[in-house]
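Inputs:
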Amino acid sequence: MAPIAITPPLNIEPTVSELTAQGIQHALSKSAPSHQKSHNGLVAKVAQLDASLLTTALTTSPRSVPDMGSAEMASQKVCTDHMIQAQWSEERGWEAPSLQPYGPLSLMPTSSCLHYATQCFEGMKLYRGHDGKLRLFRPQLNCKRMLMSTTRIALPGFQPEELLKLIVKLCATDGPKWLPKDRPGAFLYIRPAMIGTDFALGVQRPREALLFVMLTCFAPMDDIPGGVKLLASQDDMCRAWPGGFGYAKVGANYGPSLVAQGEAREKGFHQILWLFGDDCVITEAGASNFFVVWRAKEDGRLQVVTADLNEKIVLDGVTRRSTLELLRTRLSSTSATAIRDGLEPVEVVERKFTMLEIEEAHREGRLVEAFAAGTAWFIAPVGHIQFRGRDLQIDIGADGLGGQYTARVKTWLKNIMLGEGDGIGNEWGVVVDES
Ligand SMILES: *Cc1c(COP(=O)(O)O)cnc(C)c1O
């Protein structure tokens, strides 16, 4: 197979948080080329995930691409023509990955993932830029986070670069048809996942696993009239806890949250704002990170605040991280952007903060804006929070697109994703070669 062309080169980004770095080091040390003693005393080499071994079988029954804005597009059920699969076993390591027609998997009913939640996933997007190019956004970070997640649930390790090459290959195969050039700004949702397929029913580390990647049609979810409405979680439920796995994108975090989410939707809310503990510590909004812009109680300084990652009860979002980095470089007190645009500089704070503090800021007129940040919802202004039966209305700007800081972050990120960025962060858009 011809080598896969990717620009820029797939270097590991240096800005990895402590949390992720530790997870990765651990996982890589386990997935390093290893030699195992087999039962007859011979030494067997276990194969690594290797994208250069990819086999390709193209579909003979191509699917049709849903119209923009159609119900089909919004259904989140339509996948593109192809998918990636790679099998792993403890004995042999990774088999050659394949690019094949999209379709059902075949699993034994005793498979580990169907009983013990040996499953994890990632969420990314492939964008059609205004310059006609296909781009991924900081995909190296997703591939590394996937490795961290697999490690948390005893699924096999792999070199994140190899996963990225497979994702790029799938995007280069299906991107041109499913994101035609006359649809600038459109995107596909990329879902890599890994499951334990070991069909021994006992509770144990899976000895077999399957990695797969698909591309799904998705309608934009960031333009919600009136902004996102959040219902704060009750004190009888939490999403994640210290010592748990809230920091990993494992399926076990999401199923149990759906009862609360369903109740919230019945009451007219979009998502749960997950609180933790007696102090009502803010963690996340659904499967997005949560930010507020407020004036500090002590001195009225403008601050952007989000939960820190220290207790491992919050997911280290790529959107969260990028938002923090952009705000720190572009809107600090010395930033040229802030000065040029006449925006008041903001201090960027990652710390433990509580719903009680948000309520107090709201009461005292210090709460300026709030937004949710994640790949699926992108940057979505939050207009309403209900907490213990009390309602907080938050400004989402005259046009409903978010207050000026929310709107600014959204524009910066969107420009990078769609090839119109300038300056810091522009290198975060990775172009997928379609030739
Ligand atoms: C995926 C996810 C996010 C957002 O992460 P991104 O990398 O920005 O998409 C935030 N919180 C949770 C719980 C998530 O699952």
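Residues 1-19, 32-38 have pLDDT under 50 and may be disordered. Flag for discussion at group meeting.
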